[in-house]
Design a protein that fits this description.
By secondary structure, this protein is mainly alpha-helical. Helix content is 64%, strand content 5%. About 4% of the residues have low confidence.
C-alpha cells in the first residue's frame, strides 16, 4: 500500500498535469489556434455527464438493485437522437443571440426577464449544490480509503478535513481557468481541453478495472454470472425489486431531458461549442462513450457483491485493493478524481456565470445608491462576483455534504438533483418550438414544479431526520391523506424520485400551458418568441431599438463592461462590415445599438444588458405597429438564391418551381370543379323556376290577374338572374382573351356610383338593405375608363355586399375620395367581413370563401374576379379590408385624370 504522502503527491501531480494542459490550451488559443476544434474533443467534453456518480455510484447501485442504473444512461443515449433537432436549434439560438447560460437562455426567450433568469438560476443552484456535494463525497471517501483513513478522520498529515481541501482546491482551479475573461460566451479552450483529457482518463481507468475483474479475478462474464447465481444473487440480473415499468420509463425520461438543461452540459455542449458540425459526430460518439463506460458495471457490481464489500459506492476501488493490485487501485483513484473534478470545475464555472448575470448584477444595477451605471469600469467587478460565486458554491456544497449528504448514497443525491433541474425542461422545449409560450406560463410552471419537487422529495427526507413531523408521511399535509408526500393523490407504488418527477413535471407543464393560453405576451415577448422559434428561417438580428443616442455613449457603455481594447475591436469589425467607421458624435442606428447590446450580454446576460442599453438609448419604444412589421418580415419564406453555382442546384430549384406550379394547377382544377358544380346549381335554380311557373301559366289559363302578374314577375327576375350568370361567364372570357370591346372616355366616379345605386335598388329592397351614400368628391372625380364597365364593378361590389348583410338589418355605404393622385371608391357593409386568410384569394376566379356548396351564397364566384380584371385593365388596384360598419370594405383605386390630360383627350 502507498504512503499517505505519495497519494497526496500523485493527486497534486495529476492536478498539475491538468493545469499544464489547460494552460497550453489557453496559450494556443491566444495564438489563434483552436485545439478544441475537433468533433471528438467536443464529444469528450460532453462526457462530463459521467461524474463520480457514474464512476462509483453506478456500480454501487447495480450491486444493490441490478440494472436500475441503466435508465440514467439509456436516457441520454436516446436524447442523442434529438441532437440534430433540439440541441442544434438551442446551439444556433445561443450563438446568434450571445446566450451565456441556461438561465440566460430562458430569460432571453421570455422577454429578457430578469425574474425568470433569477428563478432559473436558483433552481440550478438547488440542483447543483447537492450534485457538487456528491463529487466531494466521492473524492473524500476515495482519498480517505487510499490514505488508509477508513474512519473518515480527515487528511492526517495536515489535520484538515479531506473534503475541505478538495473543495478549496477545486475552487482555485475553477477560478483560474473559468473566470479569466469577462465574455461568458468566449470559449474556455484550456478548460475544455482539460475536461476532454479527464474523460479519456476516467474511461481508461474504468475499462481497466473492468477487464481486471472480469478476466483476471474471474474467467469471464459467464464465470461471474454462474458464481452470482450459485450465491443466490441472480436477482441482480433482473428488473429491480419494487420497480414498475412506469418507474423505468420515468427514469429514462428524466435522464433524457436533463441532458439539455444541466448547467455543465449546457455549458460544454452549447457555450463551448466552436462548430455546429461537431453535433453530427456527437450524435453517435456520445452514446458510444456511455456504452463503453458502462459495459463493465454489472461484472464489477457482481464481483463486489460476491466479495461482500459493504461500502457499495467504493466497490470499484475496493476490488483492486483487496486483490493486492495497488497500481490499478491508484489508476482507479485517478479515474475517480478525473470524473469528479471535471464536473466540479465545469458546473462551478457555469453556475458562477448564472449567479453573476442573472442574480447579482440585475440587483446591483438597480440599486441607485451604488451608482454602478455611472462607473467607468465594471468588468473587474463582474469577474470578482464570478470568482466569489465559485468559492461560495464549493463551500455550500461542502456544508451540504457534512450536514445532509453524508447520509445518502451517491445515486440518491444525483437523482434528487436531476429531478430538480428537470423543472427547466418544459420552459426550454416549449420555448423553442411553441411561439405562444409566455413569461407567466414559464414562471408558473417552474415555480409549481420545484414546489412539488420539494414537497414530494425534500419533505420526506426532512421527516426521516425528524426536522419535520414524520406523521405527515402517514396523514398527509393538513391531515389530508390524498396529500401524502410519498403517495400524492393516491399514486403509490412508484420509486420516490419517479413519484416526485411525475407530479412535478405534470404540474409544471399544466401551468406553463395554461398560463400561456390565458395570459397575453407583451411586445418584446412576442418578438423574442418569434426569433427563437423561427431561428432557422430568419437568422441574425431584427430591428427592435428605436431610440436616440450617440455612438460615443454606447461605446463608453461597451468599455465599461468589456474593456477598452475589446470595445475598440468591436468598432473596427463594425467598420469593416459597414465599409466605413462610425463617427463618435453620430446618432447610433438600430444595428449598432443591437451590436452593443449583444456584446454587453456576453458579460452580464441578456436581461441585464437590455436594461443597461435602455438606460443609454433614450426614447426606446416597441409599439404594436413595429411588432407587426417585424412579424411580417420574419414570417416571409427565404427565397432561392438568384445566382446558381451548380447545375444540380439549378435543377433542384426548377423541380421545386414545377412542384409549386403543379400544386397551383391542382388548386385551379379543384376550383374549376367547384365552379362547375356552382354554375350547374345556379343554372338549374332559375331554369327550374322558369319552367315551373311557365307550366302553371299554361295549365291554368283562368288564373286571377294578380297571381298571373306575380308569376310573370318571378319569370322576369329569374330570367334576369340567368342573364347575369351568362353575362358574367362571357365577360370574364372576353376580358381574359383580350376580345372585350372597351369604350374609353372620361368618367366621373360620382356618376358611376349613383348609376350603380339605382341599378341595384331592387336588389337592396328585396333584401331589406339600406344603401347609404358616403363621401363625395368636391368636384368631378374624373378617371379614364369604360363607363359601363366601371358601373358593372360598383354594381358587383354592391350586390356582393347585399348578399352578406344581416337579413332585414343590412347597411351598405358607398363613396369616393381622393388619395394623392388617385380616386378611391369604397363599399362598406355590416356583414361578417372577410377573414385575413381569404383576402388574397377572394378576387381569384371560381373562389368562394365558404368550403361547402350548401353554405355558399348565390352566385358563381366570378363577380369579384371580373371587378379585378376591369380595374387592373385601367391601371388600378382593388382590395378588401375591415370596414367602418363592422364588416368588409371593398375598395378600388384608379389614377385621377388631371386637367391637362382631359384637355388633350378632347
Amino acid at each position: 500500500m502507498f504512503s499517505p504522502w505519495f497519494i497526496v503527491f500523485v493527486s497534486a501531480a495529476y492536478l498539475a498535469v491538468l493545469f499544464v494542459i489547460a494552460s497550453y490550451g489557453d496559450k494556443r488559443a491566444r495564438e489563434g489556434r483552436q485545439l478544441i476544434n475537433h468533433p471528438l474533443i467536443y464529444t469528450l467534453s460532453m462526457a462530463v455527464y459521467c461524474t463520480s456518480w457514474t464512476f462509483y455510484g453506478s456500480v454501487g447501485l447495480a450491486s444493490q438493485s441490478g440494472i436500475a442504473f441503466l435508465p440514467i444512461y439509456l436516457g441520454p443515449t436516446l436524447a442523442a437522437l434529438l441532437f440534430p433537432f433540439v440541441l442544434h436549434k438551442i446551439l444556433r439560438i445561443a450563438k446568434t443571440y450571445s446566450i451565456t447560460s441556461i438561465a440566460d437562455f430562458l430569460a432571453a426567450r421570455y422577454g429578457k426577464s430578469t425574474v425568470l433568469g433569477g428563478v432559473a438560476t436558483l433552481v440550478a443552484m438547488i440542483a447543483g449544490i447537492p450534485y457538487i456535494a456528491l463529487q466531494l463525497k466521492a473524492l473524500s471517501a476515495s482519498a480517505d480509503l487510499m490514505l488508509g483513513l477508513d474512519n473518515g478522520g480527515g487528511l492526517a498529515p495536515f489535520g484538515v478535513d479531506t473534503a475541505l481541501i478538495i473543495a478549496i482546491t477545486m475552487a482555485i482551479f475553477s477560478i483560474l481557468f473559468g473566470t479569466r475573461h469577462i465574455d461568458a460566451t468566449e470559449t474556455h479552450q484550456g478548460m475544455v481541453l482539460a475536461v476532454a483529457f479527464e474523460s479519456i482518463i476516467k474511461l481508461t481507468a474504468f475499462i481497466a478495472v473492468g477487464v481486471f475483474v472480469t478476466f483476471y479475478l474471474y474467467d469471464g462474464l459467464a464465470s461471474i454470472t454462474a458464481a452470482t447465481r450459485a450465491a443466490g444473487h441472480g436477482d441482480l440480473l433482473l428488473m429491480p425489486e419494487g420497480w414498475q415499468y412506469l418507474d423505468w420509463f420515468l427514469m429514462v425520461l428524466l435522464a433524457a431531458s436533463v441532458i439539455f438543461v444541466l448547467p455543465r452540459q449546457f455549458h460544454v455542449a452549447v457555450i463551448e461549442n466552436v462548430d455546429e458540425a461537431h453535433l453530427k459526430t456527437a450524435t453517435w460518439a456520445f452514446p458510444t462513450y456511455l456504452l463503453l463506460i458502462n459495459i463493465f458495471v454489472i461484472p464489477i457490481a457482481l464481483a463486489g457483491r460476491l466479495g461482500g464489500i459493504e461500502d457499495s459506492d467504493l466497490i470499484v476501488l475496493f476490488l483492486p485493493l483487496d486483490a493486492d493490485a495497488p497500481w490499478l487501485a491508484l489508476m482507479v483513484y485517478i479515474g475517480g478524481l478525473s470524473a469528479a473534478t471535471a464536473m466540479i470545475i465545469v458546473t462551478s464555472v457555469a453556475l458562477s456565470t448564472m449567479i453573476s448575470n442573472d442574480l447579482v448584477m440585475p440587483v446591483l444595477l438597480r440599486v441607485e445608491a451604488l451608482q454602478l451605471t455611472r462607473r467607468t469600469h465594471l468588468s473587474r467587478l463582474v469577474i470578482y462576483i464570478r470568482r466569489a460565486s465559485i468559492l461560495l458554491l464549493l463551500l455550500l456544497a461542502y456544508v451540504f455534504f457534512h450536514a445532509i449528504g453524508a447520509g445518502y448514497g451517491l445515486v440518491s443525491i444525483g437523482l434528487i438533483a436531476f429531478a430538480a433541474v428537470a423543472q427547466l425542461v418544459p420552459a426550454l422545449i416549449l420555448g423553442i418550438f411553441w411561439r405562444d409560450a409566455n413569461l407567466v406560463g414559464a414562471l408558473s410552471g417552474i415555480t409549481a414544479g420545484i414546489s412539488v419537487w420539494g414537497l414530494t422529495l425534500i419533505v420526506p427526507a426532512l421527516a426521516a431526520t425528524r426536522v419535520v413531523d414524520p406523521a405527515i408521511l402517514v396523514h398527509g399535509f393538513f391531515g389530508i391523506e390524498l396529500l401524502r408526500p410519498e403517495a400524492l393523490f393516491g399514486l403509490s407504488g412508484l420509486q420516490p424520485v419517479s413519484h416526485a418527477l411525475f407530479w412535478s413535471i405534470a404540474a409544471n407543464i399544466l401551468l406553463l400551458v395554461a398560463g400561456s393560453l390565458v395570459f397575453q405576451q407583451d411586445n418584446l415577448q412576442r418578438l423574442q418568441a418569434l426569433l427563437f422559434v423561427n431561428i432557422f428561417e430568419r437568422e441574425g438580428t431584427t430591428r427592435i431599438w428605436r431610440g436616440d443616442t450617440k455612438v460615443a455613449e454606447l461605446f463608453d457603455l461597451l468599455v465599461r463592461f468589456v474593456g477598452r481594447e475589446p470595445a475598440e475591436r468591436v468598432m473596427v469589425l463594425d467598420a469593416i462590415t459597414r465599409g466605413r467607421p462610425l463617427e463618435m458624435a453620430a446618432r447610433a442606428d438600430a444595428d449598432f445599438v443591437q451590436l452593443v447590446e449583444r456584446h454587453v450580454a456576453r458579460a452580464i446576460g441578456a436581461a441585464s444588458a437590455r436594461a443597461m442599453v435602455a438606460s443609454v438609448v433614450r426614447g426606446e419604444v416597441i409599439g404594436p405597429d413595429d411588432i407587426l412589421e417585424i412579424l411580417d418580415e420574419a414570417s416571409q419564406v427565404i427565397e432561392y438564391s438568384h445566382q446558381l453555382e451548380e447545375r444540380s442546384r439549378a435543377l433542384e430549384e426548377a423541380g421545386a418551381e414545377l412542384e409549386r406550379i403543379n400544386e397551383r394547377l391542382r388548386q385551379l382544377d379543384r376550383m374549376k370543379d367547384d365552379f362547375l358544380a356552382t354554375v350547374s346549381h345556379e343554372l338549374r335554380t332559375p331554369l327550374t323556376s322558369i319552367r315551373s311557373f311557365s307550366e302553371i301559366l299554361i295549365d291554368n289559363p283562368d288564373l286571377p290577374v294578380d297571381e298571373r302578374q306575380e308569376f310573370l314577375g318571378i319569370l322576369v327576375r329569374e330570367s334576369e338572374r340567368l342573364t347575369r350568370l351568362i353575362n358574367n361567364v362571357l365577360d370574364l372570357s372576353k376580358i381574359e382573351s383580350g376580345s372585350m370591346d372597351w369604350v374609353v372616355s372620361d368618367v366621373d366616379l360620382d356618376e358611376v356610383i349613383d348609376q350603380a345605386i339605382g341599378a341595384t335598388r331592387g336588389m337592396a329592397s328585396e333584401l331589406s338593405a339600406v344603401v347609404e351614400r358616403g363621401a363625395k368628391a368636391a368636384g368631378p372625380a374624373l378617371v379614364r375608363g369604360d363607363y359601363d364597365r366601371l358601373v358593372q364593378v360598383v354594381v358587383n361590389l354592391l350586390g356582393n355586399a347585399f348578399k352578406f348583410t344581416p337579413p332585414g338589418e343590412g347597411r351598405v355605404r358607398v363613396g369616393v375620395a381622393a388619395d394623392g393622385a388617385d380616386w378611391v371608391v369604397t363599399v362598406d357593409d355590416n356583414g361578417p367581413g372577410v377573414g385575413p386568410q381569404h383576402r388574397a384569394q377572394i378576387f381569384e376566379k371560381f373562389f368562394q370563401a365558404n368550403e361547402s356548396l350548401k353554405d355558399r351564397p348565390k352566385g358563381t364566384g366570378l363577380g369579384l374576379a371580373i371587378c379585378h380584371q376591369i380595374v387592373d385593365h385601367f391601371g388600378g388596384e382593388i382590395w378588401v379590408e375591415g370596414g367602418d360598419l363592422g364588416g368588409a370594405r371593398f375598395a378600388f383605386r384608379l389614377p385621377a385624370l388631371v386637367e391637362e390630360e382631359r384637355q388633350a383627350a378632347e
